[in-house]
Structure formats: structure tokens, C-alpha cells
Amino acid sequence: MKLKYSYKIIRYCPNKFTGEFTNIGLFLISEDKRYCNFKFLQNTNRIQKTFSSSTAENVRRLIIKLEKAFEEFRNNPSIFTESYTIDSIAGYIVPDFGLSLFFSETKSGIADNYEEIFNKYFELIVNRYSVDRRIDKNIGNARIIWNKYFRIYFEQNDLLRYIKKKEITIFKEHVLNFDYTWQNGSLNIFYPIKLGFKKNTNDDRKYVQNLLGLIPYLEAAKLDINLYYLSKFNEQYNENNAYYKEILNRQERQIKSEVIDGTSISDIIDNMLKYNN
User: Within this chain, do residues 189 and 259 fall inside the same structural domain, yes or no?
Assistant: First the structure.
């Protein structure tokens, strides 16, 4: 007899602003709640190669805590009451584990062998495809923006050698990774964003709020930081561009943020040349 089951993928996102995440576990429960299973990634070598050694270590520590939390919950007889759903279980467990952890949307299916389907999903979703290098559609493809529009300014002036990847630990188990930074007296972060705003839409406003959400995290690092949003704005939408520039250009304690385009990038190049020569 085939019965319905639901499952969620457990994900770790070292940098929510780029949208890159890794699948670290799977949680599946049958509709009658007689079957409840979870499993987590055991080998984090792929995470270390794709992100960093500290990210892999954070994931290992987090998995130990998650295994304990899931085991305690599974051993609780109340799980078999009708009041619990897979969403409420996820909501019960996740709040204790920081900002980097999240569940996928709930997915469902029908099977007569839960253990078989669980192992199949774990192998396909977690073991084989642990890291998802996608860029969230609202964030934009930062690498394309960098390579297509901004890399050339640094390359032509022999400054690429000063552009380094940087890892910033914000909280005990939360790390932000940046691909393009330059260190002088301050930490300068070059953060490519999508190519301008066509309309003042809800999606645009949400996107800008996500960008602003980066600042409190950086403040927690207690460093002097210049955050440069790199964007080649579409000149057809100058009114909207000016509006969003005004919002993003700000000074917050130790964090200064500024939108940089193909014109204002020359000031940064000049400063780098003076500092490094």
C-alpha cells in the first residue's frame, strides 16, 4: 500500500547575499508519522573546496548540533500526534541554529517503501549535489557583472593582483565571503549588483532592502569598511537609478556604502594607484 510522505532539504548558506548554498541534510516524514528519518552530509571536503575550510568546519559543528536536535525530537512521543507537520517541526528546530541555516520548501510524494525513497533522495540531493553554485535571481550574477564591466579597469592598470578574496566572521558560526576586496587602511569590498532598475517595482525595492541588509552584518565585524556596489546602470532609467543610489549611498558608523558605475570607478582606480605606488 502506497502512502504519502513529505520531505525537506536542509541547507546551509554561508553568504545569503550571494545566494550560494550547500545541501547538508534531508528530513522525511510519512503522512501517518510512523516513519520519520533524517540524515546529514558526512564528508565536507566538497564544501571546503567550493567555499572555504572555515565554512566546512562551521558546517561540521552545525551538523553535530542538528543531529542531536532531530534525534531528541524523533524520540519524543508527541511527534506522533496530529498537531505536528513537517513545517512545524522545521520551525521548531531551525530558530536555534542561526542565520545561515534554512529548509527548502516542502515536497511530497507517494511510496510503499519510505526507507528506499529516503536513501535515494539523500544520495541524489545531498551526497551527489551538495553544493549549488546558483546566484539568486534577485541578486544578479555578480561574476558576470564583474568580468564584463569592471574587471577591465583593474586589469588595464595592473591592479588585479591587489584584488583578494576575503572571509569575514560575523558571529560564531556565520561567515561572509567576498570575492573582490582590496585592503589599505580600510577594507574595501567591491560588490557587483544587477544592472540598473527598469521600474520602481516591489521586486526592486525588495532587492535594495536585501542589499541594505548587508550593512548590519558588516557592522558586527567591527572593521572600517568601504562597501562599493558596482553597477552599470541603464541610462534609460536615470530617475529610478538616482532614487536607488540615494538609498544605497550612506554612512553607518564604521561602514560607508556607495554605488559605483563606469564613471566613478576611476576615482577608486586613482586611489589604488596612489596607495600601491
Answer: yes
What is the number of structural domains in the chain?
A: 2
Predicted TM-score (pTM) of this structure: 0.55
Q: What is the pLDDT of residues 43-90, one digit of tens each?
A: 888 777 767 777 788 888 888 888 888 888 777 766 556 567 788 777
Neighbour count for residue 252 (Cβ, 10 Å): 14
Please check whether residues 155 and 113 belong to one and the same domain: no
